[in-house]
Amino acid sequence: MTYCVGLRLQEGLVLLSDTRTNAGVDNVSTFGKMHVVEKPGERVVCLMTAGNLSLSQIVVNMVQEGFESETLGGFFTLGSAPSMFGTAQLVGEAIRKAFAAHGEAMRAQSIGFDVSILLAGQIKDRRMRLFQIYSAGNFIEATEETPYLQIGEHKYGKPILDRAARWDTPLYDAIKLVLVSMDSTLRSNLTVGLPIDLLVYKRDTCRVDIRRRIHEDEPYFRQIREQWSSALRDAYRAIPRPDWAR
After folding, report:
1. Which DSSP helix (H) or strand (E) runs through 12?
2. What is the CATH number of the domain that holds 38?
3. What is the pLDDT of residues 115-124, one digit of tens each?
4. What span, in angstroms and rounded, lies between the C-alpha atoms of 63 and 119?
5. pTM over 0.70
């Protein structure tokens, strides 16, 4: 399993993914799930993947190397699609092509066709956007009212985002939010694991602002984990008992 989260904010994007893959309790590996195409001054496009690892790699390779797109009407890659919406269409089409090529064989082996992708970025003179793309190739987009999207094992990290993530959240404050969201998931689900990959993008710059792999011994992440746990304990203790309890 995995956990990936993306925030599309007024100031930019904050994206975070774990690196664990799990095919059983004795088959745990580390694979990066964040894939970035950066052409400074022209575009930044990031994919984060969850689900079947082989399907994810097939789709990522297809859109990185490019193919003749019936939807877009020509040969396109992540680095050449004309807009972020067109990029989302390209990724969705790649998923459908992967299903056409491998879906029947997977069904014969009783393997589900499971892949989901977060796509985020900006192309020069276009809008900055964040999409969630499903196994059928269809997709939804983050909005000002719902500025974040998640894939994978998302339920443990969702409450902090529901309470605190807002369209006008300052960009670097949002780093804290996604790290707390990830820490909550790491504590509750062993199929999500360190290290984790972070990307921060400032709106309209068309270049990556921060890209960092965070390991267990990262001082700031350790501080986040300790302070958040302490703050939760203090908040719990500060809440009065119900007046009907003895």
Report:
1. strand 12-18
2. 3.60.20.10
3. 999 999 999 9
4. 12
5. yes
